[in-house]
Amino acid sequence: MKFLEYWIYLVLSISKIFLFSVYSGTEFQFSFFILNLASIVVLSSWTLLLSYRKRRWILMLLLFLHSTLLVSDLWYYRYFDDLLSISLLSDVTQMSDVGGGFMTLIQAEDLFFFADLLLFSLVLFAGRKNQETSTRKTKRLLAGAGFALGFLLFAIPLANSYINEEKWLVDEPISNMREYYQLGFWGYHGLDFAKGVSGLFTNDSITAQEASRIKDLDPETPSAVSDSEKPNIILVQLESFQTSVIGQQVNGQELTPHLNALKEETLFFPSFYHQTHEGRTSDAEFITLASLQPLKSGSVYTQYAENEFDGLPELLRNAGYDTAAMHAFEKDFWNRDDFYQNIGFNQFFSQPDFPDTQKIGMAVNDEDFFTTSIDHAAQLKEPYFAFLVALSSHTPYEIPEDLKQLDLTGYEDPLLRGYYETIHYVDGAVGVMIEELKEKDMWDDSLILFYGDHDSGLTQADSEMAQELGAETEVELFELDQQVPLFIKEPRMEEGRVIENSGGQIDIAPTILDIVNIDPPYMLGQSLLDEDNNLTVFRDGSFRVEEFYFKPDLTSPSGSGTCYDTSSGEKVEFAECEPHVKTAAEQLRISDLIIQKNALDQLNTDGD
């Protein structure tokens, strides 16, 4: 059979994309099969012009490169539910310090991505004595026909989408996975590479229409803050803290006894969600401080750290606050030194400013971090805003033996065991911090918030955690994965209460500003203490609002998806969620506009 090695190459290539779908749990519909096959033919048909001796080795190399990119995408997807992007190159230098949990993403079955190389080698060996019998004209005809057919099969669906003005194509897309389903594996990566290159030459000036969209966010109301409304503010971000651990018991032991007790003297929000994406901890910080959405690829900290953001620290500083950030790792880790300065922090206390005592994971243990941070805060000029980023419960959840206190008999997953131990330890550190604040008279008159930055990464449907907690339905798995705790202790608060209204990290800054009577310009969130329903939008276009949860169908045109009732977990009519679908997408797009074009700097410059 002529060109046998090429037909085998096509079969192996498309089989590997199918294997990726199986391992990642992503969709592989017939239209997706055709789209991927077409792109493979377009990219490889030129090899038919080569001699047999050259062609077989080129195809072997292409198979190897294909497997390498696929398995890299798979490892990335297992952690972020997303695909690699050229924009992530700016994050590479930061990965070595958070790589402790990387090995957990690699599974033995991943070697099957390279099994085709052995099979293809056997084909080459069996055909090593084959002689080329096809004429140059035949090669050109077959290569040209293959390219043309593949191009048509790839381009026709795109042309149809463009004619129908589907948002994922004609506007800036809000999700990498939608592009993956609409363009196929190679189509997604090709477009992503083209965008990365074109981004070096495009003009980032905002248009008059874009400026108008952003200005609509600004209430244009001057803020006059009286001294009586300037409490000291302490905002604490807890690493990998899920709402599921609050009130949870394992073998009769409370995982978080101190945070459980804290509900008695604070506002507790059980329906509060993290909105992080690929930037994880840095995303949580950015969303919280700037009240904007994360990027669809990578982190604002590494790509846009020097841009202008009318964030919480700057607004408080303009109102007379001394502002300080505290993070007990290296100052330039994830460009925090640049970002913190640009967003309005007067001081940044990093690794050298904390004691060289027992480390847990990346940095000094949280108990010493918290108590030292209190000392730093006490030296600030009042009123002050202190932002603390804890680290002890960072993946891979390793804690010294002498600090383990739980009986975890019956738990099999070592990561889950480590997670519960570190969460229990951090809860104890929070308890020490609260007692310290009370002893130093820094508790009663202050505004103090604790919140989780993101999930543990152990919340998949088949995980031991999900099985233990009985999370089975779409809504239960969503809440297990996305809910993080939020505690707000207002100044001179006498008793706590539970607030059932839902919200997200994007609402923290507006809530703090609401309490101190500052109107937040250019923020996408809203106060959690007003009477309006908050729309909590996630990076893939899903959202939570009122009693509904919307999950988009990324394999279909923008706007498609399923609406769920969060109380019952049952599907409801799409009409219940439909009014918010476009609003959610617009929030993501306007956030991208502000970040990627440094739009606030342009607006401020034009206004001067």
Automatic annotation (TrEMBL):
<feature type="transmembrane region" description="Helical">
    <location>
        <begin position="30"/>
        <end position="50"/>
    </location>
</feature>
<dbReference type="InterPro" id="IPR017850">
    <property type="entry name" value="Alkaline_phosphatase_core_sf"/>
</dbReference>
<dbReference type="InterPro" id="IPR012160">
    <property type="entry name" value="LtaS-like"/>
</dbReference>
<feature type="transmembrane region" description="Helical">
    <location>
        <begin position="140"/>
        <end position="159"/>
    </location>
</feature>
<protein>
    <submittedName>
        <fullName>LTA synthase family protein</fullName>
        <ecNumber>2.7.8.-</ecNumber>
    </submittedName>
</protein>
<keyword id="KW-0808">Transferase</keyword>
<comment type="pathway">
    <text>Cell wall biogenesis; lipoteichoic acid biosynthesis.</text>
</comment>
<feature type="transmembrane region" description="Helical">
    <location>
        <begin position="57"/>
        <end position="77"/>
    </location>
</feature>
<keyword id="KW-1003">Cell membrane</keyword>
<keyword id="KW-0812">Transmembrane</keyword>
<keyword id="KW-1133">Transmembrane helix</keyword>
<feature type="domain" description="Sulfatase N-terminal">
    <location>
        <begin position="231"/>
        <end position="517"/>
    </location>
</feature>
<feature type="transmembrane region" description="Helical">
    <location>
        <begin position="111"/>
        <end position="128"/>
    </location>
</feature>
<dbReference type="Pfam" id="PF00884">
    <property type="entry name" value="Sulfatase"/>
</dbReference>
<keyword id="KW-0472">Membrane</keyword>
<dbReference type="InterPro" id="IPR050448">
    <property type="entry name" value="OpgB/LTA_synthase_biosynth"/>
</dbReference>
<feature type="transmembrane region" description="Helical">
    <location>
        <begin position="7"/>
        <end position="24"/>
    </location>
</feature>
<dbReference type="GO" id="GO:0016740">
    <property type="term" value="F:transferase activity"/>
</dbReference>
<dbReference type="InterPro" id="IPR000917">
    <property type="entry name" value="Sulfatase_N"/>
</dbReference>
<comment type="similarity">
    <text>Belongs to the LTA synthase family.</text>
</comment>
